[in-house]
Amino acid sequence: MYEKETEELLSQLKEDKDISRFLAENEKEMVRPLHEYLTTLLAEKQLNKSEVVRASLLDRAYAYHIFSGSKKNPSRPKLLALALAMGLNLSETQYLLRYAGLGLLYPRHPWDSVIIAALERGLSVKDANQLLDSLGEKDLLE
Question: Would you call 57 helix, strand, or coil by DSSP?
Fold first, then answer.
């Protein structure tokens, strides 16, 4: 996806005195809008957007707003619902969260641990919610 490793960019940024030049020279290395990355994920995984929207259990219009880019900053639980609906693994989901500027899943937090387990087991949003409920945690989209 990118030509340069993050460490290389960081090193270059530390050395460069002109932030404008750094940004201009590395424009292709910068994070694209979230909806573009989600579109890339759909293509890479050969997923149908409407099926992912349905499986996410998100409000249909809201989910399409995320995919179109008109909803630029979805909440962490809503993005996690999309990750589950797309069948992302933990590594892919952590990257998605980082990409969106949201907190990573942290195994010391009980709710996060359940979501990690759901991702690792390939659970649906519905099944993840049932697991959360059975363990006394709030639902994903509550």
Answer: coil
Residue for token digits 């005195």?
A: 17
Provide the pLDDT for residue 107: 97
Work out how many domains the chain is built from and give that number.
1
DSSP 8-state code for residue 46: T
The mean pLDDT of the chain is 95
CA dist 101 and 20 (Å) reads 22
Q: What angle is formed at CA 134 by the lines to CA 129 and CA 135, rounded to 5 degrees?
A: 100
Identify the CA nearest to 92 among candidates 129, 58, 41, 140: 41
Q: Tell whether 139 is covered by a domain.
A: no
| Structural domain containing residue 80 | 19-134
- The whole-model pTM stands at 0.87
- What single-letter DSSP state applies at residue 137? P
Instruction: Report pLDDT for 84.
Output: 98
Nearest Cα neighbor of 84 from 36, 139, 2 is 139
- All residue ranges of the chain with pLDDT < 50 are none
As a whole number of angstroms, the distance between CA 80 and CA 92 comes to: 11
